[in-house]
Amino acid sequence: MLTNQYDAKVKIFQTDGGGKFTSTLFTAFLDSKGVNHHLSCPHTPQQNRLAERKNRHVIDIAITLLSATSLPTKFWVHSIAHAVYLINRMPSEVVNNQSPFLKLFGHAPNVQHLRVFGTAIYPYLRCYNVHKLQPRTAQCVFMGYAQVFPFANKMSSSVSGSSHGNSKTLFNSYVVGALQYLTFTKPDLSYAVNSVCQYMTALTDLHWLLVKRILRYLQGTLDHGLKFSSGPWQLHAFSNADWPGDVNTRRSTTGFVVFLGPNPISWQSKKQNLCGQEFNKS
To answer: What predicted TM-score, i.e. pTM, was given to this entire model?
Structure first.
């Protein structure tokens, strides 16, 4: 990100001796990027004085935000994100009374959209209602800034989000939408992904657990799937059907597959809806 967005490179990376920083994989990654890894002495946090001081700065502001709004500590993630968002747009003596945003991007930040953390907001919820008698809005608490505005319901204290909508619903929709593209090369995911898609308009925590289970399965089967290769642009189709192969319903199964060159592009296997007349007579 530093290279692509800011035309800069990390040359030295200093950390403490935590296991996540001294693991073989992380060390090999830094070596592959040509980054020097410096470790601070054990029980000597003052060697990381800049990082420790900024960490304390962010934590102090986050605690202040939670205390001033009487929000429970389970919303600490949103208070920290809000604190960092404000710090990056406030003048600092370290950069000659300029904001970090101005120093990084070369222009002053837009602050007209800023809102007070913890204030009451009323997001438009009509497009997410499941029936007409549900309220069009509800009093919520503003929780910070993102591509969608996070908020917490005043009654249930559950976090949602809105840029005219619900952040959890949008996020899950993006994830499941991406999974749908994978079904082209991983048809074994088709049934599970299509099942989850049916509940995107009324998402629950159970459905998100199912999505995470699909992601865990995907992580363990990255090398499985159909492989596409270049070839002639010729279309071929094959179909077949068995004779009452289902021992329970005595119905036949029909299937087909369509190839574009050497690559399968469409396929289906479906149990027939009706039994054959000849079979019924026998």
So the answer is: 0.49
